[in-house]
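Model: Ready when you are.
Researcher: Fold this.
Model:
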Amino acid sequence: MRISLQTAKLAAVLALSLTVCGWALAQALKPTVPKPGAERLNLKMSPSVSATDPLDADLRPLDFIVAVVDNEPITNQEVNNLAAMVDPAANKLGRENLLREALENLINESAQLQVARQSNLQVSAEELQQAIEGTAKRNQITVQEMQQRLNAQGITWERYRTQIKRQMLLQRVREREVASRIKIQDHEVEAFLQENSKEADSSKADIHIAHILIAVSDKAQPDELTQALSKAEEVLRTAKSGEDFGKLAAKFSQAPDRANGGQLGLRSPDRYPSLFVDAVMSLPVGGLAGPIRSGAGFHVLKLLERKSPDALPSTLTQTRARHILLRPGNQLSQDAARAQLAGYRKQIETGAAKFEELAKQHSQDASATQGGDLGWANPGTMVPEFEKVMDMLQPGEISDPLVSRFGVHLVQVLERREEPLTTRDKQDMARNILRERKFDETLKNWEREIRGRAFVEYREPPQ
């Protein structure tokens, strides 16, 4: 894993859980912004690592302040905790330079957090709890189990929450400050669309291949080779007759990915064996090839997808959903709103009430008169915190209460459909792609600007 020291505090907490517990806590705060352009270093997954928060760090007897950023201290212990996350085998900087790099990243982080405070950006307790609950749910464990596993690694629950909250705040300020600086001109969009409309070079397009392996030992006798080849040819004939390739893979393939229908994933051609690439290069999507001989045996291949990295799709997935919105205020706390919506969900699931009726009676949104129906929405239409939950729901499924900038929602997906892209859709997609391309460089410039404005006083070198 390669990660910048600037984000290593959060990664350390997550990495510990990944190492010992084997579940993907790293998805808790899946980044929506590119990593800062700091030196990239390999993390070691060591259960002895512990992250320290500079805002609540306990100064130990041998600890001391190494720098002050606009009156906020950074301690030697913090620098060493961050440096300890780097695998010594991957450290090309040397101990002294590594400590200096860790200190510089902590200084940058401190300066950015102060911008967040000046902008009155906050992460509420409800938003933090929702992020943690979402992580537990995605990884099929309870919050209590998450807490127990962290405690087993010497990480207190409050320390974990503090680290997650700090990283959420950093992400939020970076998104807010950087996005407003990116301007995409109409002529850039038109140029992108013209370039995109040209015939793509198929040799550079990403490909997605599925395979069925009939394994052959490297010591196989001629008759065993003949038998294996015959079996592979029979599988190919069956696939060409229209039999589901995934089911054939599950039944006949002797590769570890058989349970996944033999799918190898969408990736660039240079990440596939050259014999696979050569075999499918001239195939249409859905085409079959084989048997192909490799050192492992005979393969039957199917080209599932071919996609240029910047190619626009021909259709987009629209979602029709409805919701009940409660707006917390003086008479209704956020916790009370969540509890009230949870009660509505139970009524709907037991058949005691209908979603649309509850929406008409209680939703504090213009959609209430339509039973909460939001109509058909394109990707990116809803605010991210709402859309993220909506996208995970199956038609007919109802979410847990979720918090957005507008209030607390109960969401149900009604149906989905594929619609051809309009000219406006293509322009919007092109604008988003161009914005992502510019984000990383704009982020680096903003970080340099924030660092230049900060008053940094160096005390003693970290040891």
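Researcher: Now this one.
Model:
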Amino acid sequence: MRIYILLKRNILTIVFGLFLVFLIIFSKNNLSAAKDGLTLWATCVVPSLFPFFIATELLNYTNIAQILGKLLSKIMRPIFNIPGEGAYAFIMGIISGYPVGAKIVAEFYSNGICTKNEAERMLAFTNNSGPLFVIGTVGVLLFGNSTIGILLFITHLLASITVGCILGISSRAYKLSEKKLPYSNTKQEKLSSSFSNLGNILGNSIHNAISTVLLIGGFVVLFSVILSILNRLNIITIFSNLLGYFSIPYDFSRALISGIIELTNGVNIASGIHAKVISTNIILCAFLLGFGGFSVLLQVLSIISKFGLSIKTYFLGKLLQGLFAAFYTLIFINKFSIFNIDIPINLTSSNSTPLFNIFIIVFMIIFGVVLSFINQKKIANHNI
């Protein structure tokens, strides 16, 4: 018992110490992985996201959020149980990609526009993969087919809306008495001086956009190195072999595990798997895009932690979004001929056994997390 307590208290020290040791031991492979991460960041992330980050920062100096709040409050409140301003976070999050939605929601909460519960729920469905990444990178570059990218983006969007509705319904079932943070006048000062200080606004927007894109770059490089270390330690291989007991081929389980850790590496592996039914590859990518991976989760945590927002609802929402995105992709491929790029999928056929088992495993994980989350809500509601 004493050893357990000591390990619990020093777990981060142990993990960080081991990470430093493995950086030295596997320095050659880690150097190559870091270079690959930097190349991925420079060639994919910066060109596709940086302009959107600047545009988002510029819009933050306007009253567009308030305008959308007034126009769409009658839609956002009944459907998602959030303020109308949440429409701005959702639109910019789906257009710009990770982690713009999280930044906007955190700013809403700090400015007293929404409560803590509303902010945590908004995080779960407004922070999404952008169309340039889903359609351009995954669809065109990885699969070589823009139709696949469009399909993945449509189901990604539908899944995020579904999660928002589910969380909105659950919030009404477990009402918590919360207050908003005091409203900040900083935004109003920026608005009143926006035209006279256009140079400052442009400079601040570019500076903030650079900070965000550098943050993402750091996470991409870090998790590229982490994946390299896990591969050298054969940890990913061990887990992939364990999933083999569920009749999931090694390549699919490796893509699933890698994607759960870091999104880009996972979809890259999934898109390159040689399979009789390419729909399985696409559906696996749909799940990974919906979940986002722990790399994105930690990006979000780095943004919201200073505001005291919890990551639990975000984690649950992303698990659900991944499952719904995979399910919607399966339906679209079967029901719409434009997306049916191979033979129809039959979950009882031998070709689709890996897909069926992946669904079962993911469903079991999400079901357990949901039960735990609901139980915590009941306890919190009872204590009030």
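Researcher: Key takeaway?
Model: The radius of gyration is 21 Å.
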